[in-house]
UniProtKB/TrEMBL annotation:
This is Fused MFS/spermidine synthase. The chain crosses the membrane at residues 12-31, 51-70, 82-101, 113-134, 187-211, 262-282, 294-315, 321-340, 352-375, 400-420, 427-445, 451-470. SUPFAM superfamilies: MFS general substrate transporter, S-adenosyl-L-methionine-dependent methyltransferases. InterPro entries: MFS_trans_sf (IPR036259), SAM-dependent_MTases_sf (IPR029063). It comes from Methylomonas subterranea. Gene3D superfamilies: MFS general substrate transporter like domains, Vaccinia Virus protein VP39. Keywords: Membrane, Polyamine biosynthesis, Transmembrane, Transmembrane helix. The keyword Membrane applies.
Length: 744
């Protein structure tokens, strides 16, 4: 028998509107704070995408703590005691406002900065975020005791909470970020938090007024009939259904932001789909939506595997992105749909949310702490794609174990072929075609989760192995800053003898290459070739640069070092110690060893390192910092430009490498040059009939005086032109960056 008080709440304000509105505000604050603080921390760690994933681990961990607090409070204390304790916590948390980074926030330059980042987040926003995290389960539990006619099933309030989260996420990149600087964002968030505290206290008053008189010796759940706790296997099922989407969320986010830019717009896309799934599965349409998601997932999976894993080069990036997002959305809709179907009675509401948040935290911990040490590439993403298929309903239906026989035989046959044949490289096209046929078979086994997941796993294993074989990977390692690999390739055509070339990749983007013939070991290639813009710069100033002091941000394979002269002093700034180790090791590359072995290597974020350098010390500063194909945005702000020119001599030159598939970075630099009254030239180098490994590349050179660059513009070495005028671009500053205005 349920004896929840049926007394109407004495309030002119509908309790549904009050509680839903408070949850809405709470969710908005939570999901504005996440991208805002992630963006605030990016400049301290080189703008790497791993910053956001680490932030997500912190957010999920504090969310779990907030849900645990709500569960403990509601299960161990009566409603009046809950109100007293939570009100005291609200008042105490106000002392943490306004939210801001600690004054001494300096990341370590050696080792993995993950723990430093989490500790900094804890000091900055730990307590307010904890309070916001506890709001959803605690207020839903309070609402279940109000006596409202919908109090028996308050789970629909979770949809209202996620609607607020979704609105906040969409508002951030399209409304808040383009119009409000970070300093004002932090101020407005702190004001919003104060409003939330007031709303929570009003909800507490509404609950207090509707409570019956307490009975001496009464249990925390006043005279309520105690239902048996959900069995442990069911709670494990909840855990799995929430763990896999959480891990998939971070895997997809890393995939997106690695090749474009580590910015809130691209962090928010997967998170928006993630929250949308919760809104849909806890809505009144869930029973009609779920069967459709189950039917669509295998169909999209077939296309997804065939193009995004077996033949990724066939699709343009935007179409591949859509395919990844669609496959991700269907996978989490199936998992979250099953999770919503298994939700318990409201008596165990906080336990349900506690398990969900614990699973979310585990997903983040797996991606951030376990996967980088267990895998040398981002393998957790395909692993979770397979795990989501195993979680489809009906796993143990019929003779389920027979479903794994065919995939198992395929795997054994493939491994036997690999071990027995050294000429597999000659049959890559045939193997790729066979994998596409196998992808088609996945749809025929869609009714069996074990068969579908096992066959997909085999295809992904073969696909990843095929790409590794085709790329001739010699070395691969993963750090906080991304996946670094050294590969061999062969160049030459019908008129040339085949020649082996060593290449350096960061993520999916080539960061340097070296020809291995003795005559070409010191020849700069790719973006740094002698016919290219940076080669033209050194050639034009060859007569006067004998004693130049040169700084280069970004090391790569070290090709720039082969422009060095004996009396020049070179200093490289590199954030990832592994890149320094690889570039210095003659087993992989010879540029540094042969051209400038005495060059200084400064480990750490370039801006933080340059601030320590003496003013007016450099004759030339080369900006070549990339994370895969993304230039860290904090190296492109007005304050960054002012820093660079404070470190350059009056006749010094800034050379900026801006080659990018997605963003027109020349607009940002042109705006800075105009506003700071600098002179700039651009060359979008597109060689005709180029020699091997001389590639198209874009460079900008900037100086304080126009005449300093006149000789470069008038030279016949290349086609230098003035930077384009910009009229509609809001200046990029440390307080404001936004990539939509420069999207190609």
């Amino acid at each position: 028998m349920n004896t929840t008080p049926q007394t109407a709440v004495n309030s002119t304000l509908s309790p549904v509107i009050l509680f839903a509105g408070t949850l809405f505000v709470s969710a908005m604050l939570m999901f504005v704070l996440q991208p805002m603080f992630g963006k605030l921390l990016l400049p301290l760690l080189g703008g790497t995408p791993a910053v956001w994933n680490t932030c997500m681990v912190f957010y999920q961990t504090i969310l779990f703590g907030g849900y645990g607090y709500a569960h403990w409070l509601s299960s161990r204390s009566g409603q009046q005691r809950q109100i007293q304790i939570h009100t005291a916590l609200l008042i105490f948390s106000l002392f943490a406002l306004p939210v801001a980074l600690p004054d001494d926030a300096n990341p370590p330059t050696e080792g993995n900065p993950t723990f430093w980042l989490i500790w900094t987040l804890f000091l900055s926003i730990g307590l307010p975020f904890f309070v916001v995290s506890a709001t959803a389960p605690l207020l839903q539990k309070w609402f279940s005791h109000l006596g409202h006619h919908s109090s028996e099933d308050p789970y629909y309030l979770y949809a209202a909470s996620n609607a607020g989260s979704l609105l906040a996420l969409l508002s951030y990149p399209f409304l808040l970020e383009p119009n409000i600087g970070l300093a004002d964002q932090r101020l407005f968030w702190s004001m919003g938090y104060g409003l939330l505290c007031i709303l929570i206290i009003i909800c507490a008053v509404a609950l207090w007024c509707g409570l019956p008189e307490p009975v001496t010796g009464e249990a925390p759940e006043e005279q309520a009939e105690q239902l048996a706790e959900p069995p442990f296997p069911q709670q494990l099922h909840w855990l799995a259904l929430a763990f896999v989407p959480s891990s998939l969320l971070l895997g997809l986010t890393q995939y997106i932001s690695t090749d474009i830019a580590a910015v809130p717009l691209l962090w928010i896309l997967p998170l928006t789909l993630y929250l949308l799934s919760f809104i849909l599965v806890f809505s009144k349409w869930a029973d009609r939506i779920h069967p459709g998601m189950l039917a669509l997932q295998p169909a999209v999976l077939l296309i997804f595997i065939a193009y995004s894993f077996i033949n990724p080069a066939l699709l343009p990036y935007w179409l591949d992105l859509i395919l990844h997002c669609l496959a991700f959305f269907l996978a989490i809709m199936v998992c979250h749909g099953e999770l919503a179907k298994l939700r318990p009675h409201t008596q165990h509401l906080t336990r349900f949310y506690l398990v969900m948040s614990f699973a979310g935290m585990l997903g983040g911990l797996f991606n951030t702490f376990v996967a980088p040490f267990a895998f040398n590439a981002v393998y957790e993403y395909p692993i979770m794609i397979v795990a989501a298929l195993f979680l489809r309903p009906g796993f143990f239906k019929g003779r389920w174990y027979l479903q794994a026989i065919f995939p198992g035989l395929l795997l054994l046959a493939g491994l036997a072929l690999y071990l027995s044949n050294d000429a597999l490289f000659d049959y890559l096209d045939i193997i790729g075609g066979a994998l596409i046929l196998l992808a088609g078979l996945t749809y025929s086994v869609r009714q069996g989760p074990l068969g579908l997941g096992s066959l997909t796993a085999v295809i992904l294993i073969f696909s990843l192995g095929l790409h590794s074989l085709a790329s001739s990977t010699l070395y691969q390692e993963r750090t906080f800053f991304g996946v670094l690999s050294v590969r061999d390739t062969v160049i030459g055509d019908e008129n040339q003898r085949p020649e082996k070339v060593r290449e350096l990749y960061h993520g999916t983007t080539k960061h340097g290459a070296q020809r291995l013939t003795a005559a070409n070991l010191t020849t700069p290639l790719t973006y740094y070739s002698r016919p290219g813009p940076i080669g033209q710069l050194f050639a034009e100033f060859d007569a006067e640069n004998q004693h130049w002091n040169i700084g280069a941000v970004g090391l790569g394979a070290g090709a720039l070092a082969c422009y060095a002269k004996p009396q020049q002093h070179w200093r490289f700034y590199e954030i990832d110690p592994l890149i320094v180790d690889v570039a210095k090791d003659p087993k992989w590359f010879h540029y540094l060893e042969r051209c400038k072995p005495d060059a200084d290597m400064i480990i750490g974020d370039a801006r933080l390192s340059l601030q320590k350098e003496p003013d007016q010390g450099f004759d030339l500063l080369i900006m070549d910092a990339f994370s895969s194909d993304a230039v860290p945005t904090h190296l492109l702000t007005r304050e960054a430009m002012q820093l660079y020119f404070s470190k350059l001599k009056d006749d010094g030159i800034l050379a900026f490498h801006i080659t990018n598939r997605h963003l027109a970075l020349k607009k940002v630099l042109a705006d800075h040059a105009e506003s700071l009254r600098l002179s700039g030239l651009l060359q979008e180098f597109k060689p005709e009939n180029p020699p091997p490994l001389v590639v198209a590349t874009d460079w900008v050179v900037i100086a304080k005086q126009t005449q300093r660059l006149d000789r470069l513009r008038q030279s016949r070495l290349g086609h230098w032109q003035k930077l384009p005028l910009t009229f509609d671009l809001q200046p990029w500053t440390d307080d404001f960056t936004h990539i939509i205005g420069i999207w190609k």
